[in-house]
């Protein structure tokens, strides 16, 4: 447990009716109560000590609530009704939809986070906060510079579970590297009203029969990612096939009746894959090689060559001159 003395107390609310100040004060007070573990029946008296006098303090005296009222169900709704303008959430939503980067990215991000914090503070349930975050993600991407839009979309394709905070961090890192400038062209109608954060940012606000530049870039990024994955798959699975194909090409190219030289790498590969050491193909061994094997034709050719060589030797001895008599005798023949 963190003692209240060690915590920074929430700011004193001075009665500003712009809506943002009231929501920021409620967020700070609730955070302080949760960290200090203030009991529910003691939260309203603590909150009253952070209301400026005479404005907000006088308001509470005239609203008809008791000092022991429930802070969440009684004090907070009455406070929002008094100091938050009507349709404040709608106004913030419209500002997020139409917000655009006009100076630099840091100013744009600061303004966006301020509007987002107001909407999140106005959302009463977790489901409402989830809807606000989805809407904010779409609006943030749509209103970024076009180059940054393409980078974020590519990042979301590779990391579909990226949160809104992580998108902010990624955009800040990209801006630190590239220093984005505002787009000079006219801003197209935003599609941020849709609920789906990623699909809506890709949907065209114009005719559905004509693709926008953003859609074309997104499709190109998707095709590049698919092509890269197929190349990696081919590299992992096609090593043996590529090896056989290249060697078959070399064999057909250099097929002069003799097998190509067997290198050490070829010998190891043939041994590991039970391949032929002559043609480097899988499915048979060297002794049964259909390309360079010792088949019957090769045997007959070799035997015929041996007979010819033997006949030439006999003929030379038979009809050639003898080194002693000049003629070979019949017995020698």
From TrEMBL:
<keyword id="KW-0862">Zinc</keyword>
<dbReference type="InterPro" id="IPR001878">
    <property type="entry name" value="Znf_CCHC"/>
</dbReference>
<dbReference type="InterPro" id="IPR036875">
    <property type="entry name" value="Znf_CCHC_sf"/>
</dbReference>
<dbReference type="Pfam" id="PF00098">
    <property type="entry name" value="zf-CCHC"/>
</dbReference>
<protein>
    <recommendedName>
        <fullName>CCHC-type domain-containing protein</fullName>
    </recommendedName>
</protein>
<feature type="region of interest" description="Disordered">
    <location>
        <begin position="237"/>
        <end position="260"/>
    </location>
</feature>
<feature type="domain" description="CCHC-type">
    <location>
        <begin position="276"/>
        <end position="290"/>
    </location>
</feature>
<keyword id="KW-0863">Zinc-finger</keyword>
<dbReference type="GO" id="GO:0003676">
    <property type="term" value="F:nucleic acid binding"/>
</dbReference>
<dbReference type="GO" id="GO:0008270">
    <property type="term" value="F:zinc ion binding"/>
</dbReference>
<keyword id="KW-0479">Metal-binding</keyword>
<feature type="compositionally biased region" description="Low complexity">
    <location>
        <begin position="239"/>
        <end position="256"/>
    </location>
</feature>
